[in-house]
Write a structure and sequence with these properties.
This protein is α+β, with helices and mostly antiparallel strands. It contains 12 helices and 17 strands. Bound molecules: adenosine-5'-diphosphate and magnesium ion (MG). The site of magnesium ion (MG) has 5 residues, from helix 2.
């Protein structure tokens, strides 16, 4: 017999998990993105001990039918794309079909779900093995609980940062998702204490206020700009209201939060000399574009994407920011002196 053999399924899933499931926040990201893809208008995130003890996500989305439930936990099983051409116009947050099997391979997972058309179902897996699947009463939507994260991959567990850091990553992630999706009501609760809540009424300025405070929220300037390929919209802080870190800038592409150095550079360029050295604005910007112009299949966690016409977009952002800010300075501040 030769030396080369195929990996068994659980081991292959664990290796895939290495790419997408680095830490508790990655699990929250994958699961909440699933809730978003399932058209939820409400997503509640409940975390115990920074997610190491338990992560529970409850949504009111489409749910999963009984026949699909076990398949959803198989590798490369997805309802979101089917043909090769779909990969070039992905409209959903997920499409790789890797999150659920990856998470189930490194944790204890129970999902209760209902489509609303039929009675609900429960599935329980641990370490990639099916423990049970049975009918269970459930409200329409999906309620998934992940426990004992990395219990069978001790190296992963060791690599985690302090519980405080892991929690702050979850908070940051939930904030960004709420900024990306102001029409979805998110809540984040840690050890029984509510840390964040967004109303889900579509008002981005309110989400900004919920995250950065009312005094920031009310001073943000709306920005809008478009060219034949891109449409940008969002809010900017005045050059007077800055922070010492770049992390208060959020750029989303078709409502997907991404990291892109060129685009944040373009924002800063739009402020020009109005920003002091080492100071950064508070910005939330969504870019609407044809999915054909963006390749999200670059990075397993899809945090980085590849954009065609990136410099055209960067120019649009810079000029949109510049214009918005210069208009403010034109408005005479008579009111203040009265
Ligand atoms: P992907 O999101 O890439 O399709 P996942 O492993 O994250 O892969 O999920 C597999 C499938 O399970 C999804 O395609 C979807 O059909 C279903 N699913 C997962 N989570 C939910 C949810 N919260 N609500 C409804 N369906 C879900
Ligand atoms: Mg997914």
């Amino acid at each position: 017999m030769g030396k080369i053999h195929e990996l068994d399924r659980v081991l292959a899933d664990q290796i895939a998990a290495g790419e997408v499931i680095e830490r508790p926040a990655s699990i929250v990201k994958e699961l909440v993105e699933n809730s978003i893809d399932a058209h939820s208008s409400r997503v509640d995130i409940l975390v115990e001990e920074s997610g190491l003890k338990e992560i529970r996500i409850i949504d009111n989305g489409d749910g999963i039918a009984a026949d699909d439930l076990a398949i959803a936990f198989r590798r490369h099983a997805t309802s979101k794309i089917q043909h090769q051409q779909d990969l070039f116009r992905v409209q959903t947050m997920g499409f790789r079909g890797e999150a659920l099997p990856s998470i189930a391979s490194v944790a204890d997972v129970t999902m209760i779900t209902s489509t609303g058309q039929e009675a609900g179902n429960l599935i329980h897996l641990k370490g990639g093995e099916l423990i049970k699947q049975q009918a269970a009463s459930a409200r329409p939507g999906t309620d998934i609980t992940v426990k004992d994260l990395f219990y069978n991959t001790p190296a992963r567990l060791k690599y985690l940062k302090s519980p405080r850091t892991e929690l702050s990553r979850i908070v940051d992630l939930v904030n960004r998702l709420a900024l990306a999706e102001p029409s979805i009501a998110f809540s984040l609760t840690h050890n029984g204490r509510e840390l964040f809540r967004s109303a889900g009424n579509g008002n981005l300025q309110q989400v900004i206020a919920a995250i950065y405070g009312n005094s920031v929220g009310e001073k943000m300037l709306p920005v809008e700009a478009e060219d034949p390929d891109f449409k940008i919209s969002g809010y900017l802080s005045l050059p007077e209201m800055t922070r010492s870190s770049r992390q208060y800038m959020t750029v989303t592409i078709n409502h997907r939060y991404i990291y892109n150095f060129q685009l944040t550079k373009a924002i800063i360029a739009g402020y020009g000399s109005k920003l002091m050295v080492g100071r950064y604005p508070i910005v939330v910007l969504d870019v609407e574009l044809d999915p054909l112009l963006v390749d999200v299949n670059v990075h397993p966690a899809k945090r980085e994407v590849r954009l065609s016409k990136e410099s055209q977009l960067a120019n649009l952002i810079s000029s949109g920011v510049e214009e918005t800010i210069s208009q403010v300075n034109l408005i005479p501040d008579v009111g203040q002196r009265a």
